[in-house]
Write a structure and sequence with these properties.
- The protein has 266 residues and is an alpha/beta fold.
- It has one domain (6-264): Aldolase class I (TIM Barrel, Alpha-Beta Barrel).
- Helices cover 44% and strands 17% of the residues.
- It contains 14 helices and ten strands.
- The chain has helices spanning 6-24, 27-30, 43-46, 74-87, 98-101, 105-114, 130-137, 147-150, 154-163, 175-183, 204-213, 229-235, 247-250, 255-264; strands spanning 53-58, 61-62, 66-67, 91-95, 120-123, 142-146, 167-172, 188-192, 219-223, 242-245.
């Protein structure tokens, strides 16, 4: 596989973390957790309403911009998630990766209680089917699969997640990955406009890949670098239905108010 820069490093560290978790919390134990029985909500259905739909993200640390908010906690994550939902977010994405993004499983579990009817996306670096069991155990409705990280394992991982009732957002960065996502049967495809190595954002990536992913049978999501309503308005006509926004909201004192202003700006 090509050099993936920081993505490869995160993937390697995630494999180590998952190996530890498997011994500490086996699948049998995960399936006894109360939130495992939460029937997963459909992320595609949530994004199918008329007009552009925002997936608002809860993350406290960004590798590209450092600490976004101090004093992270499950209580704060749940509070922000609930405020996002009240402000009009169609779904909420929650970072659970601990080392590079300051995430924690408890953040999503807490948000599940505060957002009972809003789809929650577990934002982590999926490298093992075990993580889908973790997702169910903390009440997640959807998971992210990064095509560049999984390579030829994308199809089997997609099938495994779907078999547990989870929605699957496949993230792509270029034409080859977009084709791989389609070949894997992906119906929910996100285009990340952030370069994997430099971490720089170029929205022209989303524009370039639109003809490949913005199809009638695909729910396309634009990710990264969406800082203004004009960004959203420029991509919506290309066929993007969902817009995943985190950093620009989380850097502000009141993320939910920022979402409200974003949704109503013209």
């Amino acid at each position: 596989m090509a050099d993936l820069g920081i993505l490869g490093k995160i993937g390697d560290r995630t494999k180590e973390r998952v190996a530890r978790e498997k011994s500490e919390r086996p699948v049998e134990w995960l399936r006894t957790q109360p939130l495992y029985d939460h029937p997963p909500l459909s992320l595609i259905k949530a994004l199918s309403k008329p007009g552009p739909q925002v997936i608002a993200e809860v993350k406290f640390v960004s590798p590209s911009e450092g600490v976004l908010r101090k004093n992270p906690s499950s209580i704060e994550a749940a509070r922000i998630a609930a405020a996002y939902a009240s402000a009009g977010a169609s779904a909420v994405s929650i970072l659970t990766e601990p080392e590079f993004f300051g995430g924690d499983y408890s953040y999503l579990a807490g948000a599940r209680d505060s957002c009972p009817t809003t789809p929650l996306l577990m934002k982590d670096f999926m490298v093992d089917e075990y993580q889908f069991e973790v997702a169910r155990s903390i009440g997640a409705d959807a998971v992210l699969l990064i095509a560049a990280l999984l390579g030829p394992r994308l199809g089997p991982m997609h099938s495994a997640a779907k078999s547990l009732g989870l929605s699957v957002l496949i993230e792509v960065h270029d034409e080859a990955e977009a084709e791989a996502a389609l070949a894997a049967g992906g119906a929910l495809i996100g285009v990340n406009s952030r370069d994997l190595k430099s971490l720089k954002v170029d929205l022209n990536v989303a524009r370039r890949l639109a003809p490949l992913v913005c199809l009638p049978e695909i729910t396309a999501v634009a990710e990264s670098g969406l800082r203004s309503r004009s960004d959203l308005d420029s991509l919506s006509p290309l066929g993007y239905k969902g817009f995943l926004i985190g950093t620009s909201f989380m850097k502000l004192p009141d993320p939910a108010s920022a979402l409200t202003e974003f949704l109503h700006a013209r």
